[in-house]
Specification:
By secondary structure, this protein is mainly β. The N and C termini lie far apart (about 40 Å). The radius of gyration is 15 Å and the shape is globular. It has a single domain, classed as Elongation Factor Tu (Ef-tu), domain 3 (Beta Barrel), CATH 2.40.30.70. It contains 1 helix and 6 strands; from the N terminus they run E-E-E-E-E-E-H.
Length: about 90
């Protein structure tokens, strides 16, 4: 197997799409949802980098994605360490 990581986009179908403010747990202050990682947003698409364990056709076996069972997959693509890392990124 040549690929060990996948980038997975999913539709968070249980998200509240009308919420525009969120209180992230790291500081407890109110922020706009686009400045947070809250699933509650007008377009609730999640992005996750997961570890590919096995691939047998349409249903790859993977670990590292923490979501409730059921959100439909929108897109899966291979993760490339040279391209997908942002070592200089900061969060303020």
């Amino acid at each position: 197997m040549g690929c060990t990581r996948l980038i997975l986009l999913r539709w968070l179908y249980r998200a509240e799409r009308m919420m525009l403010k969120a209180f992230p747990p790291h500081d407890g202050k109110e922020h706009g949802v686009f400045a947070t990682r809250s699933p509650n947003r007008p377009n609730p698409i999640s992005v996750g980098i997961i570890e590919l364990l096995e691939c047998d056709g349409e249903n790859p076996k993977a670990r590292g994605y923490n979501a409730i069972k059921g959100p439909p997959r929108l897109y899966i693509k291979p993760g490339f360490p040279e391209v997908d890392r942002v070592p200089s990124a900061t969060v303020g």
